[in-house]
Amino acid sequence: MFVQILGSAAGGGFPQWNCNCENCAGFRNGSLRAKARTQSSIAISDNGVNWVLCNTSPDIRAQLQSFAPMQPGRALRDTGIGAIILMDSQIDHTTGLLMLREGCPHQVWCTDMVHEDLSTGFPLFNMLTHWNGGLNWNRIELDQSFS
User: Fold this and answer.
1) Quick one: how far is CA 139 from the chain centroid?
2) Bond from prior residue into 58 cis (ω within 30 degrees of 0)
3) pTM for the full model?
4) pLDDT exceeds 60 at position 145
């Protein structure tokens, strides 16, 4: 199995655009030795060619650009994205779907609750129906039996 960390910072990334804490300020003025980081997202694959995104942060374009297996290489319009798993419906984990609209339809896996949130409260599923079939929802069942 292959795991690629695409981003590991909290909402807003690092440095956060509106933060002047010691770390963010130190990064900007060069007194803190650190690397800029995009918001949290990972990609997993069983073959290194077809990838499953876990969450789609607002930084998804930069994340895909920095990871060669996700870039078009097999056809004129192409991606290594085979599916997307949404862990929750937080804006920091889902707004990247808007950036991926040109690649629709996408296979999106999430729970009923996440699908409901993204169909009503922040209706990404509805908005993206206008782009080449939008998002194809695949239900993640929650196992209610515990031992």
Assistant:
1) 18
2) no
3) 0.87
4) no
Phi, psi of 40, rounded to the nearest 5 degrees: -65, 130
Both tokens assigned to 116:
């409901």
Q: Taking CA 68 as the corner, what is the angle to CA 15 and CA 63, rounded to the nearest 5 degrees?
A: 25
For 9-57, the pLDDT digits (tens) are 988 899 998 999 999 999 999 999 999 999 999 999 999 989 999 999 9
Give the pair of three-digit tokens for residue 80: 């290594």
**Is the CB of residue 83 less than 8 Å from the CB of residue 52?**
yes
Helix (H, G, I), strand (E, B) or coil at 99: helix
Q: In the 8-state DSSP scheme, what is residue 101?
A: G
- Burial class of residue 133 in the structure, from the number of CB atoms within 10 Å of its CB (0-12 exposed, 13-18 middle, 19+ buried): exposed
- Cα end-to-end distance, the chain, whole Å: 28
